[in-house]
């Protein structure tokens, strides 16, 4: 009777011991789903790759900021360009022309009359 509980009958009529099959299934379960299992290793690998990409992106930003700092410290033309662009500054001897944007007169001049 003990043999009947620990053995599984196969299609060919032979019997497989149940204990080794259960042990193999348990070992496979730990190999796949355990703390150091295959699935966790794959997940950690993907996470590592994402972090590496983020580090490279941040290093590129750092390089760009260091270049800008160096330009601000030593390049007068760069400083002048920023002052003109962001602060609207001009040199003493320059003449500034200002154009109104979206004025009614400018839009009326560009319209052509429609024949009726």
UniProtKB/TrEMBL annotation:
The chain crosses the membrane at residues 16-33. The keyword Repeat does not apply. It comes from the Bacteria. GO terms for cellular component: cell septum. Residues 48-82 form a coiled coil. GO terms for biological process: FtsZ-dependent cytokinesis. Keywords: Cell cycle, Cell division, Cell membrane, Coiled coil, Membrane, Transmembrane, Transmembrane helix. This is Septum formation initiator. It comes from Syntrophotalea acetylenivorans.
